[in-house]
Amino acid sequence: MQRSLPLGRPDFDVDPGQQQEAIERYDDGRGLIGGDPNRRPAHVRWRPIPEQQPYFRLIDISAEKRARLAGFLAGEAAGSVGDVAAHRPLEIEIGFGMGEFLAGRAQAQAERRFLGFEVKRDLCRLAIRSLLQAGLDNVWISDDDARWALPQLGLDGRVAVIHVLYPDPWWKRRHQVKRLFSLPFLDLVHQLLIPGGLLHVRSDVEGYAQLIQQVVAEHGGFSANDPALAAPFDADPPTRREAYCREIDRPYWVLGFRKEARAEIRGC
Ligand SMILES: C[S@@+](CC[C@H](N)C(=O)[O-])C[C@H]1O[C@@H](n2cnc3c(N)ncnc32)[C@H](O)[C@@H]1O
């Protein structure tokens, strides 16, 4: 029996002013969770996570760990030679929470590589513990805001699937700039995915699920929502949020978008 999770408000507001600000100030780091990491260097050394663990925070990474991470992202496996990345597809989960889906999927898909982002460091500690207990060596995680870290990892056109499961709806008007789904975020997702790569999203907030479909349509670089694309992931362990929704019969929306070539580049 899961502990009750907050259900949020019945209404989901969209403030066009906040959406516009999120677009205009995306490159300044407006909307990043915890703010711009460059401006809080002292905070990053709080209770470090052991060097050997498959965890990183980019602002505080050693040269040795950076090299190991680069090897993992390049698709290197122990004893492998040549370009094996194509055979070891890379999946990313943004906001993995307690990590049930990430760990479960990584266990079931041992030939794939996984990169998970969760800004709450204590949740990263929990996730690392279960990854190590399960003996998984195909997952790395980070407590960086994914929007800040991903453009620095050299992964353009190399990611097979991006999962965003139950993203925070950020109900309050002044917090709406933190919402993950905006046009610049979709530019990033589009850049990262391989041709035909998949964006898999779930939400139990109907208004947010609708907003996501609108922003994806406005972006123009993805197919229309096809939930069937995301159906195979029903076989993976649900996230904590989804398990709770299933338990209390709360509806949730499953969205799948395929990367397509863009007809024109927005705003350029
Ligand atoms: C509503 S919770 C859902 C957690 C989990 N996916 C689930 O379904 O139970 C959203 C999670 O995303 C994390 N998060 C939000 N924005 C993020 C970002 N930009 N980068 C990494 N993690 C993020 C939050 O810390 C939070 O734990």
Q: What is the CA-CA span between the terminal residues?
A: 51 Å
Strand order, biggest sheet? 1-4-3-2-5-6-7
**Which molecules are bound besides the chains?**
S-adenosylmethionine
Order of helices and strands: HEHEHEHEHEHEHHHE
- What is the overall pLDDT average? 90
The gyration radius over C-alpha positions equals 18 Å
What portion of residues is helical? 25-40%
Strand fraction band?
5-15%
The DSSP helix count reads: 9
Number of domains: 1
CATH topology: Rossmann fold
Could you say which overall geometry the principal axes of the C-alpha atoms support?
globular
CATH-level-2 architecture:
3-Layer(aba) Sandwich
Residue ranges: pLDDT <50 for 5 or more in a row?
78-85
Extended strand count: 7
Main beta-sheet strand count, sense and barrel state:
7 strands, mixed
Q: From the helix content, strand content and strand pairing, which structural class follows?
A: alpha/beta
CATH class: Alpha Beta
SSE layout:
Elements: H1 16-24, E1 55-56, H2 63-73, E2 90-94, H3 100-108, E3 113-117, H4 121-133, E4 139-142, H5 146-149, E5 159-165, H6 183-192, E6 193-203, H7 206-219, H8 227-230, H9 240-248, E7 253-258
Parallel strand pairs: 1-4, 2-3, 2-5, 3-4, 5-6
Antiparallel strand pairs: 6-7
Residues 33, 94-97, 117-120, 145-147, 165-168, 180, 239-242 line the site of S-adenosylmethionine.
Q: Can you describe what's shown?
A:
This protein has helices spanning about 15-25, 65-75, 100-110, 120-135, 145-150, 185-190, 205-220, 225-230, 240-250, and strands at about 55, 90-95, 115, 140, 160-165, 195-205, 255-260. With about 270 residues, the protein is an alpha/beta fold. It has one domain (about 20-75, about 80-260): Vaccinia Virus protein VP39 (Rossmann fold, 3-Layer(aba) Sandwich). It has a 7-stranded mixed β-sheet with strand order 1-4-3-2-5-6-7, with helices on both faces. The relative contact order is 0.16. Bound molecules: S-adenosylmethionine. S-adenosylmethionine (SAM) binds near residues 94, 95, 118, 168 and 180.
